[in-house]
Predict the 3D structure of the following.
Amino acid sequence: MSKVKTLGQFIIEKQSDFPYAKGELSRLLRDIGIASKIVNREVTKAGLADILGDAGEINIQGENVKKLDVFANEQFIAALSVGGECCAIASEENEDIIVIDNEQSKNAKYVVAMDPLDGSSNIDVNVSVGTIFSIYRRLSLNGPGTLEDFMQHGTEQVAAGYVIYGSSCMMVYTTGKGVNGFTLDPSIGEFCLSHPNMQTPKMAKTYSINEGNYVHFPDGVKKYIKYCQEEDDATSRPYSSRYIGSGVADIHRNLITGGIYIYPTTAKSPKGKLRLLYECNPLAFIIEQAGGKATDGFKRIMEQDLKSLHQRTPLFLGSADMVDQACDYMKKYSMTEAAK
């Protein structure tokens, strides 16, 4: 029988990859893992508890806050606040950063950006949802964390990951040394290494996009979708359209089986809809470490300047050859539109 390796054991083994960390990053990842187990417990019994539905509030994004959204946000903030390795948190659910100003965190080296419950509009219909997180070394020297600590390029991330709450609960993360996936074994309450050294295929036959917004897409996206739908035996087209509407779920599937995930600009969202700091940057870090690519259609996601906490961006992410091809369409037809 092969030996089971838990998330905690794996983190300790890999701690030598970060000589400057001295265990702080390992403990921070552990704290995130603990909070995700608590959230998973509530997700799996959500149909039996009074935590489904709206909480009667609107978050900073203008979206209805779900009860489970609130619960997840509180759990991650609590875990990160008492762990002592994080000095500030940026959450989708909060307009401003959450400063952790206590004795344990006064010398903390890291800040964490997160979407506590991505895809929460699907909670009530029992579709997979997830948590996305991103970790940076702080820029400020000491004391409470500041907004400036978060205003960094995605290339400065020291770790990023997501947890998917689905038929099984999985944590997938990277520290810049490849991507590894861990599945929660409920019998022992531990995340166990199930997907070592994850790599996404360079080319695949799946595209993921909300085609209901087709008429509002840029011409480059429309032309690429038509390309995906054409019959051509040489390139194994048409491709399959697979769109769940829960970003973590769509991207997790494409990470494993290959494919492209596109969330472009639309007439209603001319700057895109997904948030750069705590959605696109961490997902881009993961997919690049797995051999894929992530752009806004023109420029690498992790090289974009971050100017505000909840800044939005379009996203083209997934198998490298498919992203390159989609970006070629974007560049070609953006020049055509500019010439008109």
